Structure formats: C-alpha cells, structure tokens
Amino acid sequence: MFFRRAREDRAFREAQRAGFAQLQATQSWPDFSQQTAPAPAEEEAVAPDFVPPDLRVPSRQEVAGVMMRWLQPLVIGGGVRTCPECGMYRDWIISCMRDDSVWLRCRAGHETKEPGLDAAWFNRHSGPVDRFHPTLEECLRHLGH
Fold first, then answer.
1. 3-28, pLDDT tens digit by residue?
2. To bridge 89 with a disulfide, which of 3, 16, 33, 82 should be the other Cys (CB 3.0-4.6 Å)?
3. Residue 120 pLDDT > 80
C-alpha cells in the first residue's frame, strides 16, 4: 500500500512537470526589461488628499482634551475612588488632557487630578470619539453633567 501511494505521487508530480514544460514552450512571455513606465502628462495635476480639509478630524494633540463618562465605581489600585470633597464614588467624567494627565470630575463639579491613571489607561478604556465641542460646557452638557 505504501509503495502504491508513492508511485501515484511520483506519477502526479511528473504530470505536473510535463504540463508546466508544455506551458513554457507554448506561452510567449513579454520582455519586461525593455518596457519603461509612461511619463506623466503635463496637464495632470498632483492628486489632492483623499479627505478635504473641512472634513478632517483633529488629532489628539490639536484638541485641549478628550472626555468620557464613567458610570460605575472607579477602582484604582484595588480601592474605589471617591471625590475628596463630596464623597461621591460613581458617575465620573474622566478627562485626558493634552499633556497626558488624567482628571476626574464628579457630578457636583469637583475636579481632581488622578495620579493613578495615565493616558494609556484612558486610551484602553475609552471608545471612539463621537463628537467635538468648542467649549467645556457644551461637552459636559453632551455627557449629561
């Protein structure tokens, strides 16, 4: 049984080689070494960027910061983070500023810098940016604060 399988495989490979040799003999292949790329037309302008400037999204460094809403309790370093002024422990607005600092804002409007969080944590937990706002008040209104 083993020798029959080897014989069939050898016959198949020989048939492939014969077919490839016949294809090489009958096929005329173009000579690519003599062809050159056509010169661009003079009236042809440089293609503009795909997205027009008025539709481009600003980068993270072009905006003052990025905010997200965090409804559940915020656990940092094994403990639940509470507001130092009012004691609230859920429904935060978490802001990542241009300098990669992370700030927490409670429902009462108290803001504190959070040294236990960084921009990498914010990027892992935030979703895509859905809207840009010209002022902080408009952004807070959009997030429900």
1. 778 888 899 899 888 888 887 777 76
2. 82
3. yes
Q: Give me the amino acid identity at 75.
A: V
Vertex 126 angle, CA 124 and 127, to 5°: 115
End-to-end Cα distance, the chain? 78
Run of H or E including 76: strand 75-76
Coil vs helix vs strand at 71: coil
> How many CA atoms lie less than 13 Å away from 102 in the CB half-sphere?
17
Q: What pTM was estimated for this model as a whole?
A: 0.59
Segment (H or E) for 92: strand 92-97
Reading the block at residue 41, the tokens are 């037309």
